[in-house]
Design a protein that fits this description.
The complex is a heterodimer of chains A (778) and B (161). With 778 residues, chain A is of the alpha+beta class. In chain A, 28% of the residues lie in helices and 22% in strands. In chain B, strands 2-1-5-3-4 form a five-stranded mixed sheet, with helices on one face. Classes of the chains: A alpha+beta (778), B alpha+beta (161).
Chain lengths: 778, 161
Amino acid sequence: MSATREAYVGRRIKRTEDPRLIQGLGQYVDDFRFADLQSVSILRSPHAHARVTSLDLSRARAAKGIIAVVSVADLDRARVGDVPCAAVLAGMKKSAHRPLATRKVRFVGEPVAAVVASSPEAARDAIDLVQVEYEPLPAAIDPEAALRPDAPLVHEELETNRAFDWSVTSGNVEAAFKSAAHVVSQRIVHQRLIPCSIEPRGAVAQYFPGDRQLTLYTSTQIPHLVRSMLAGAIGLPENHVRVVAPEVGGGFGSKLNFYAEEILLAFLAMQLAPRPVKWIESRRENFAATIHGRGQVGTIEGAVTTDGRLLGVRYRSIQDLGAYPQLLGPAIPTLTGLMACGCYKMDSILVEVTGVYTNQMSTDAYRGAGRPEATYQIERLMDIIADELRIDPIELRRRNMPHPEEFPFKTATGLTYDSGNYQQALDRALQIAGIQKLREEQRKQREQGKLIGIGLSCYAEICALGPSPAVPSGGWESATVRVEPSAKVTVLTGASPHGQGEETTFAQLAADFFGIGLEDISVKHGDTAEVQYGIGTFGSRNMALGGTAIVRAMERVLEKMKILARHLLGAPSNAAVTFSDGAFRGADKSIPFAEVAAAAHRAASIPDGFEPGLAATASFEPKNFTFPFGTHVCVVEVDRETGDVHFLRYVAVDDCGRAINPMLVDGQVHGGIAQSIGQALYEEAVYDEAGQLVTGELMDYAIPKAHQCPRFETDRTETPSDSNPLGVKGVGEAGTIGATPAIVNAVVDALEPFGVRHIDMPLKPEKIWRLMQKEGKR
Amino acid sequence: MKIALSVNSGRHEHEVEPRLLLVQYLRDVLGLTGTHVGCETGLCGACTVMLDGVAVKSCMVLAVQANGASVQTIEGLAQGAKLDPVQEGFWERHALQCGFCTPGMIIAARALLSRSPQPSEEEIRRGLEGNLCRCTGYQHIVEAIQHAAKQTSAAEQGRAS
């Protein structure tokens, strides 16, 4: 490694991805050009729950310019498989999820038939010619009501809407609650959210029967997993399927999935070979038929001593799964359960989760995936305890936090938190916020009738998903590193970055390792024909796992280069060769990196047994997760007249272990907080009683705009993880985990003059205004 | 219908269907795929282009309405190898992640700076009201536009002196 020039790692390096993206040269799925491209449009259910009494495709099939019209009968004939769920919990009830509806439709937006035409307009027009008769049925919408014996059954053959019961417990919870000086309880609603990546989903498929080769371009976070599942669903050998995730315009978990449309496109491509077929999701489809997030409702209870020490926590919840369990849906509330302790010590815990089918779109991993729920409820609980016991909320948190010397720290739910210094992050956040002055200011402003609130959230989350036993696909990651004949370095990563910036951060690792420039490195990802098998991008895992795999591959290549250098330097086989400042050095001579790279490929002079070429593939299987943490402080003013929430300050101190590129870390934190602002204040996927999606467009579903976000004051503490040699923890989801409770705690604090103890999200002005009217009249 | 217009300084004439949207014309007819479609309802702003110097959502404009007009897309913003100060700012300040909203966001920012060369932070945030970004939380976008404003004013002062 170079000692003479400044290392790239740890610096605010501009992204290598950006030149193409800021000039409109990025290639997203919709941007590829194909000859003879056919367009696919999908007929979707207008009902939340209905029997399909007849389905007549004949008029559509006869229409001019229509290439094909298919229903589930066509899929059945071709033995096309189901949409898979990889997280079927023990004892879970589940029925088949066909890519097109069978004799029943179970949510608004469920695909019923697909039409192929020569243009998107013609395909859309032909949808109207498909004749479907429905017999509408009562719908199960509210997940709690769906558990009642008289509820309409989403899947009649299961004889219940209850999909599973899952629990985790330790210690004597009952005794804790019996002996506790105080018991505090709060019902918590984690409303359904729509991930809303700005690029909707989309796919292009093409099949060449000669060599039985199928290619699927799809906007996904997990190209290799999609390849495996697609091969299974359409009955092709996995090595005859190529999946390409090109530029992906945001995912946030919604593209960590495998969808009916991907199977359909592959099926249609095989039917119409070699003509390529394309489907681009409309925004309305994206809202109705791409997974939703959250959708959990529960009650959290805390048993505490008089001085606020947690003896036990109980959380019973219901997870709204939607109509079908998508890829990982049932696993999401189990992450909530495992992280239910937050960043606190407690003697006992009991988490019980019931998964319920409803006539709505499936819920699954949306940025944070189960951890925002865990953090939100424990941080709301801490504030409520503080309020009831009249203990300073900061002090209450301190009393329950493990100290740095207690790490690795085993939680009541059985996880082992790798490393942490929660007090340091808390202190830093309070110092930046200037908590004493803030509180004085709040007191003064309150005297003048202003509703100022200060909210705090301390969090610990779980990242680098993660040891393989915990992840259905396997939780490792892969890398291939090639030093090319010209000494340029190619990195192939099994991770699938889609905005996080790993083309840059992975290149930073490689540039430092080989002592070359960023411009000498090319990071490739997303194409299964180019990149070795890997897992993909989710659970804030890219750097911890993908980055470590790259380091391992680089070490192997370097070892090989040392062997060759020793030979080229004419040194004896036991002589030490080191690599520094771009050259391999023996006792008295050195040879540049580039010369060794060329010699390894020219192979004119190599030692015995040396295999020409310089490439190595490695993978990294972690021993443990990583557990990032931090403290967020939010200051708001609530408008007495309108109930509107204005941000006055937002301070975030996050510890994601070692930061490879602090500028990108800031970017991840900012984006996550913005999504938290959405959840806390504006966003909610609303279905009416009949199961119609009321928030079906951006007009009705409000994701935050620029003027609704404050200026974030971010800082970091750096507590390295020992779960990976880079010491990194991951930061992709921290913002969505730490911020939501800080915002809600701030608003509840602002409403203290009205005696408000809790409000369910989203904290819309109307909701707050009504509360102020009601409470004000007391 | 026949239309003739200028796009990024090039002249184009085409026979188009009256229902063809400007964004489809740019993407499908001219192959300028830097302009993205995010909602087709004028709400997300990913398709923002400059039409006779004014930022418009090209999914809300018919191609025939652009007849005789001058259109500028993200592809036409840089002067050869020299990036526009807004593009520079976006790169410099990490104002993009997935990049999908970026072309529309940059065009909207360019239009904002044309109207108001030294905007306040509040003006920038309000000025971006029609453009949604789900990745960045907007702070770096605001900084990028401030960066561009500063660069432009420095360049102008350089010319003046």
